[in-house]
Design brief:
CATH superfamily of the largest domain: P-loop containing nucleotide triphosphate hydrolases
Radius of gyration: 23 Å
Strand order of the largest sheet: 5-6-7-3-8-9
CATH topology of the largest domain: Rossmann fold
CATH class of the largest domain: Alpha Beta
Keywords: ATP-binding, Nucleotide-binding
Protein name: ABC transporter ATP-binding protein
Organism: Pseudoalteromonas undina
Helix content: 25-40%
């Protein structure tokens, strides 16, 4: 029997409004997050994602509702956040004039009173984020990718169980982004609970187990990610005949007269799919695979808010 992950964070009708605001920035949000999973919080800019994270990490106090960390019932909410929760903000949260090592030493000294553990926690964070090559370099001299890793290393130096990450890969090159995604996947395997925001939906598909969509401060959708499902789009020079359409055994959607879409839930069917496509080689103009269930839902929920 599969082991059910315990609830590590629960929000009950959480609300918040900034002083002078005409409406709630976070409006009656209720959520349950499971231990050892990654939950994405998605939505356009200005919909309340960062405010919600600030509430969950104790940076803001809710106007109404409750935040609970039921896995740490022996601790108060303030103690649970202080001991078990870390935040990786979108902005760089370190001292530019200090070296990587000195930044980590500074933040470890704040979060851990037992000095005998400081060196161990610092080295662990350096190793986890692969910062060995830049340990003695000033933070101001680091590349964007290394600065992002240092941001994460500072959070890890606290030895947290729950890590909130607000767009941790923004503004960096693809290789640095891959390194950070790989790091976060390793953290999840270690049992860490991640809460993640990003505008890069393919990152969400790679990393996350659940997605919460926020619109005007409210949760408008909350669903698990099915990473096994693929979507294939292909276009043709001419509209396919009924005989040609019958080559496909999977569910085929006609987007328009020259654009077709297939949803594939079983990769064992790829062989028959490629065989069908090969028989249409003279007609095919383009083929595109994607795991885009999240993108499709995002577009459906927020398309009217686009600039």
């Amino acid at each position: 029997m599969a082991k059910i992950a315990p609830i590590i964070l629960e929000l009950q009708q959480l609300s918040f409004a900034y002083k002078g605001a005409e409406r709630l920035t976070v409006d009656a949000v209720s959520l349950q997050l499971k231990q050892g999973t990654c939950t994405a919080i998605l939505g356009p800019n200005g919909t309340g994602k960062s405010t919600l994270i600030s509430l969950m990490t104790g940076l803001l106090a809710p106007a109404a509702g409750r935040i609970e960390y039921p896995h740490y019932q022996q601790l108060s909410l303030k103690q649970a956040i202080a001991k078990k929760v870390a935040l990786v903000p979108q902005d760089f949260a370190f001292y530019e004039e200090l070296t990587v090592y000195d930044n980590l030493a500074f933040f470890v000294a704040i979060s851990e009173k037992n000095r005998r553990l400081h060196a161990q926690y610092i080295e662990s964070a350096i190793a986890a984020c692969n910062l060995q090559a830049v340990t003695n370099k000033r933070a101001s001299t680091l590349s964007g990718g290394y600065k992002r890793r240092l941001n994460i290393a500072i959070a890890l130096s606290k030895q947290p169980d729950i890590i909130f990450l607000d767009e941790p890969t923004v503004g960096i090159d693809p290789l640095s982004r891959d390194a950070i995604i790989s790091l976060l996947q390793d953290l999840k395997k270690q049992g860490k609970t991640l809460v993640y925001t990003s505008h890069l939906l393919y990152e969400v598909a790679q990393l996350c187990d659940d997605v919460v969509f926020i619109k005007d401060g409210k949760v408008v959708a909350n669903q698990a990610i099915n990473n096994a499902q693929l979507t294939l789009n292909f276009t043709t020079t001419n509209r396919l005949s009924q005989m040609q359409l019958a080559l496909f055994t999977e569910q085929l959607t006609v987007v328009n007269e020259a654009h077709y879409q297939l949803t594939i839930s079983d990769t064992k069917l790829l062989g028959s799919l490629f065989s069908a496509l090969s028989q249409l080689s003279d007609e095919i103009k383009s083929v595109n695979f994607s795991d885009n269930q999240i993108e499709q839902l995002y577009r459906a929920l927020f398309s009217e808010q686009a600039c």
